[in-house]
TrEMBL record:
Name used for this protein in its record: ABC transmembrane type-1 domain-containing protein
Lineage of the species this protein comes from: Eukaryota, Metazoa, Ecdysozoa, Arthropoda, Crustacea
GO CC entries: plasma membrane
GO BP annotations, alphabetical order: phosphate ion transport; transmembrane transport
Boundaries of every ABC transmembrane type-1 domain copy: 1-126
Listed Pfam families: BPD_transp_1
Membrane topology: Multi-pass membrane protein
Domain of life: Eukaryota
InterPro entries per UniProt: MetI-like, MetI-like_sf, Phosphate_Transport_Permease
Gene3D superfamilies tied to this protein: MetI-like (1.10.3720.10)
Record-stated family: Belongs to the binding-protein-dependent transport system permease family. CysTW subfamily.
Transmembrane intervals: 21-45, 57-80, 101-123
Length: 126
């Protein structure tokens, strides 16, 4: 959804700010994410749920999601941006609105790139 927002809906000023930040997050090493999780997320989960130990599967899942999402967002946004403008224009000319164009034309056209992004993100998490 973030990739769709960045490529199709966001104002260019917002896109020019958010996209480099997401790409910067994608470049952070896994060790840094692990350290961030131990220092910030583990105590937060421990305090939030009143546990003796905060190193749980939930904590690991949150850290892995934070680590994988920037990669998925970046590659998916590139795949969506690669959809030819002619496809968008043809859908809009046939009477579809912007959301119908996104759902029925852009996402199916970019589906191989979206699946590749998910595989890359999960691969980084592994």
């Amino acid at each position: 959804m973030v990739a769709i927002y960045l490529s199709e809906i966001a104002h260019p000023k917002v896109k020019n700010i958010v996209k480099p930040l997401v790409e910067l997050l994608a470049g952070i090493p896994s060790v840094v994410y692990g350290f961030f999780g131990l220092v910030v997320i583990v105590p937060l989960v421990q305090q939030l749920f009143g546990l003796d130990v905060g190193e749980t599967a939930l904590t690991g899942g949150i850290i892995l999601a934070i680590m994988a999402l920037p990669t998925i967002i970046t590659v998916t946004e590139d795949a969506i941006s690669a959809v030819p403008q002619v496809m968008r224009d043809a859908s809009l000319a046939l009477g579809a609105n912007q959301w119908q164009t996104i759902y029925r034309v852009i996402i199916p056209y970019a589906s191989s790139g979206i699946i590749s992004a998910i595989v890359l993100g999960v691969g980084r998490a592994m």
